[in-house]
Amino acid sequence: MTREAVGRRLRALVVATAILCGLAVVPAQPASAQTGAMIQPVGGRVTGVLSNRCGSVDSDHYGVDVAGNNGMAIGAAYPGTVTFAGWTSGGGNMVTISHASGYVTRYLHMVRQASVTVGQQVGQGQLLGYVGSTGNSTGPHLHFEIRRNGAVYNIAPAYSCGGTVTKGAPINLPFADLAPAGAIPERFAFVNSAGVAFAKDGAYSPWRAINAGGATRVALSGNWIGWLQSGNFYAKDGIHGEWLTLAEGGQVRDVAVSGSRFAFVNSAGVVFAKDGAYSPWQAINAGGATKVALSGNWIGWLQSGNFYAKDGIHGEWLTLAEGGQVRDVAVSGSRFAFVNSAGVVFAKDGAYSAWRAINAGGATKVALSGNWIGWLQSGNFYAKDGIHSQWLALAEGGQVSEIAVSGGGWFAFVGSGNYFAKQGAYAAWLTMAGGGQVSKIAVNG
User: Is the pLDDT of residue 357 over 60?
Assistant: First the structure.
């Protein structure tokens, strides 16, 4: 065996040992790249690319200039959250958008005030404003910048002086760790015994530490990663995004994420929810809740042994199951499920449908995603592909302590402190994280 081969084997052993022990030691890896994930915000002729002003040099120029007629519509290059929409002396009317994986885009010199506001969630191609010549500008154009983790992104390979670009066309650059707009990443996450949350995109990718410790729960939805830590609610828009403090004060007891909706339960049992990371929180109930669940527009919660839900933050609340016997709840699309005090799992499709019993008793947890219903019973993991199908024993032996199901066909569980997952009910289980240190898990995509 060569010295190089020995070195590779030793490095692999170190990494494997670190993961098994729950340490945040991750080797440098080539980032995955999605070419063309962002789109051109306007169409027109390129008159400047970074420091090259197409005839002169300007070391303080950090984007691309695309000349166009006054009033041309400007679209968002990628989905994200508006973090600035206002006036700057150099940029005139300007919009800044924060995206997944640490990316930021800026749109300068708009003819008038932006069409979006700070905190607003925007989709790819959504109208931001109109081309103008405000601020330090010599004619109608859009100055467009891309940055990542605070550094200027090299856009030069995608643009040439005098060339033209088409609005809505993919920007021919490799955007590392940025999924195509609208795509749901195949993401996995867990919390170890030290409270460190780890996440990765793809079953065979390396784990990345999200925090320094103290977490007790992790939640995934779309590109968002949320976690409960020391009574506070934190979140990241992608593994490489900056972390945000959504709710602090040490009073948070449960958290949930669905799309760009966030919810938590405080120590008084009040459920709060909001649409968009920068929006204000809205109280959903008066208190007494212990768990909250989100899916689509639905908000469900467990309160005093009863199951309540609302179709949207401002919708009327419904009593789905009462009598003080409910012990766990779940929501997926228009499907609802709960576990009663005898461990019987009930499910129904539609808020006004009749409940159907799924098992005979003994369950302690229920999970929903897509058409799948999964439940934890006597240390075993069972599931059904729809309310009326036959049940399957996915993992037996009495060692299962936590379960998760994703709409992409992924099943996951914690057994004896290890994280296992598989895609498809009849596939073989993969060991995602061993060492007996795993406590909570999540899977998405």
Answer: yes
pTM for the complete prediction? Answer: 0.67
CA–CA separation, 106 and 399 (whole Å): 51
Distance from C-alpha of 373 to C-alpha of 366, rounded to nearest angstrom: 7
* Residues 206 and 313 grouped into a single domain: yes
Cα separation of 228 and 195, whole Å?
A: 10
In the block, tokens 């670190």 appear at: 18
Q: Single out the residue in 120, 148, 176 at which a domain terminates.
A: 176
pLDDT tens, position by position, 65-83: 999 888 888 999 999 999 9
Strand positions, DSSP E, 8-162:
33-35, 44-49, 64-67, 73-75, 80-88, 92-98, 103-110, 121-122, 127-130, 141-148, 151-152
Largest CA distance in the chain: 78
In a domain, 4, yes or no: no
Lookup: tokens for 229: 């830590």
Q: Decide: 168 and 42 in contact? Cβ < 8 Å.
A: no
Tally of domains in the chain: 2
**How far, in Å, CA of 381 to CA of 402, rounded?**
9
Task: Tell me the sheet residues that pair with 326.
Answer: 340
How many angstroms separate the CA atoms of 144 and 104, rounded? Answer: 11
**Claim to verify: residue 297 and residue 436 sit in the same structural domain:** yes
- pLDDT digits 0-9 by tens, 409-436: 899 999 999 999 999 999 999 999 999 9
Q: Is residue 53 part of a domain?
A: yes
14-60 pLDDT, tens digit per residue, is 333 333 333 232 222 334 556 778 999 998 999 999 988 898 888 88
